[in-house]
Structure formats: C-alpha cells, structure tokens
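Predict the 3D structure for this chain.
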Amino acid sequence: MPTSINPATGETIEEFAEHTDGEIERALENADAAFADWRRTPLRQRSDLLNRIADELERRKEELGRIATREMGKRFKEAVSEVEKCATGCRYYAEHGPAMIADETREGPASKNFVAYRPIGPVLAVMPWNFPYWQCFRFIAPAIMAGNVGLLKHASNVSQCALEIEKVILEAGAPQGVFQTLLISSKKVEGILRDRRIRAATLTGSEGAGAAVASTAGSEIKTTVLELGGSDPFIVMPSADLDKAVSVGLTARMQNNGQSCIAAKRFIVHADVYDDYLGRYREAVEAMTVGDPMDEATDMGPLAMRSSVEDLGDQIERSVKAGAKLVTGGTPIDGPGFYFKPSILADVTPKAPAYREELFGPCAIFFRVDSIDAAIDLANDSDFGLGGAVFTNDAAEQERFIRDLDQGGTHINRMTASDPRLPFGGVKRSGYGRELSREGIHAFMNIKTVTIA
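Done. Predicted structure below.
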C-alpha cells in the first residue's frame, strides 16, 4: 500500500489504496482512446494547454511545494522553485515545441522529400521521489506537445504529489486520458509495459529498476529512455576561483538534502589547492543548519526515508573501515525524523564502497590529484557517466575536459543542472537516451520519412 510519511517527524501522513487490475485496464483504455483524438489536435491547441498548465502550477506553487516538503522532506523554498521550474518547462515547449516537430524538407530521390515527426502513442513514465514534480514534467511537457499521452507510476512515498500532478493537468483543461496517475506497486509495471497499447517507457531511478524496464521493453521491441544513477565528479584545478568553487560545490552536493542523481559526489581537487579547498569546504559544511525543511533558516532538511539514513550510514562506516578518512559528520542526528549530518570523506581507496557506489545523501567524497591527466582518469574511473562540473579558468584545460570526460554533460565553472533548453541524460550505467530540448521531444516520436514523386 503506498504510504506517505513525513520525513521531518517520521509520522504517517496518509495511506493510499492501490489501483485494482480493473482500474488499470480502464486507464489503459482511456489512454488509448485519448491518444486517438489528441494526436490529431492542432499544435496551437497543445501549446495553449501547456500554457494553462503552467498558469495552474504558478497559481498553486506554494500549496504544491508544501505537499512535496511534507512527503519527501526537501526544503520548502526548494520545493517551490521546483514547481516554478515545471512551469518554465511547460512554457518552453509551448513556445518552441511546434517548430521542433514541424516537417523538415530534405534533399532526396523524389520531387518532394521531408521528415515528418508524428506521435507514437501512450507512454509509461516510472518516476522517483527526489524531484517529485520536475522529474515528471520534464517528460509530460514534451509528451503533450508531441501529441502523445502519458501514464505515471510514481514512487510510492510521493503518492499525493502524483495525484496533484494529474489534478493540475486536468484542471488546466486536458482531455480525460491525456495524462493519468496510477497508484501501483513496482510489480505491476511489467504487465503494463507488455500491454500492446503502451508504446514506450521512460524511467528515472535506480540501475536495477532501469535494467528491469529495459529488459521488458526490449523483449517487446518498445522504445525506452533511462536516466539512472550518477557519481558526478566536481573537479577543481589551480586556476579556479576557489570562493566560487566552494560556494557552488556546497550547493551542488547538498541541495535537495544531498539526494540528486546529478549531485556533485566526487570532489577531485588538484594538489596545489587541495588543502585550502578542503579546509574552506569543511567550514562551509560544518556551518550548515540542519532542521525543519519548512523553516527559511534551514540549510538542509531530512532524508526522504529511514532506509536512506541507514544506507548512507552503512556506506560511510564500511568506507572508513576500508581506509577512508571521515573529515566531518558521518552519523545520523538523534531525534524524530530522518536526519543525517552533512559529511565529508577523504583519502577514499578503490576498496572502499564510496569509491564505486553512489552515495545518495549529504556526503562529499574528496580525492587529491597531481595533474589534469590524473583528474580525467579518476573522473572516468566510474561505472556512471551522468554529468560533471569542472572549475578552471585555463582555456586549454577546459578543452581537455570537454573532450575527454566520459559523461552526458560537462559544465565549466558552474554546477550540473538540467534545463529545458538543453538535452539531458547520461552514458554507461547512468542510462541512455535524452530528455528535454529537441532531443527529448523526438525521443518518443515516429521520425517518418516521406517522399513524393
């Protein structure tokens, strides 16, 4: 049974009944019927809907922000900003989407040759709890613009957020069936994905969940886009502005209470500035105020679940036993709720869990390197390849990092972040395919070749 628990107190907010098999079947029927109509709607009608959805998100941003904070613990001001970002994403596709999917004339063998972008049908979205609105809307906005329809299986601890997303879209005037939330367990996903009416799937989540969805979709010859884990490097070279690198690095690691796939997890710092940078970073971490996520003075709230606290503590403990140095933090905070001290590990050896595993919580891992070659080699020595940040003012170094870092996005002198104007996704075990921008809307379209003699 999906259950919402307030991470700040540990108290149960609400329990939700799962949708029955009959209700799932009706949702699939609704999606199929809605697609038959929505795929033929004029692009202006799709844009108008997205703008109304954005209006509704902006009107309700504080209400929706409070719901997210109560369900998964992110700071209220971060939750409100997340809702605002969803509205921005909707407006982006409302404005630019029609041009992205307009027919494109090409050279070819016939008197008239062009590429037509057409929707493919109902898409199943399996989404995580850490950005309960944005993860969904970066799929929903391009899907609606493309003429597709969506069904959402959200994480079970943010069921209220999931229901509110459907409510926002319906109240903005979306036809019934264009978007639906399913309150179901993970074990129901395979059957839904195998249904002939579902044409594709997108998943943001763990490697295990991604592998399961990809395997099922592959056996059914269905398109998937996967955004999985990350262990993003944050590289600091001697020419960097250290004040900026500390400030941005703190946000990059600790935002969303340290629970982000694209968080800066591995700090790879050149030996010439290592001690200075680590000292400043430690001061900033130890000055953070941990507490009530609704309080404006709070710098970091609780982790989303009790298991998150237990898992992070176990990873840190095992890493220290394997030779890593605990610089600060490393333990849960006593009292109600799922709080963990902001932490730093250094001198992490390849045998330590923190070297290979993704630490999904507020713990920065520090490495010292002597050269740009060593920095690149260490950054690439990971099963993940989502994104990464590099702080250097040396133009030649910037070119090297852009060329040689094996990741889906490289960001110079700024933190990794998704933006609707740019494609987003990873390589290696961080997944495949791209969300957002032109690449994101084309991911779930039939790119049809047309020739006319």
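The mean pLDDT is 98.
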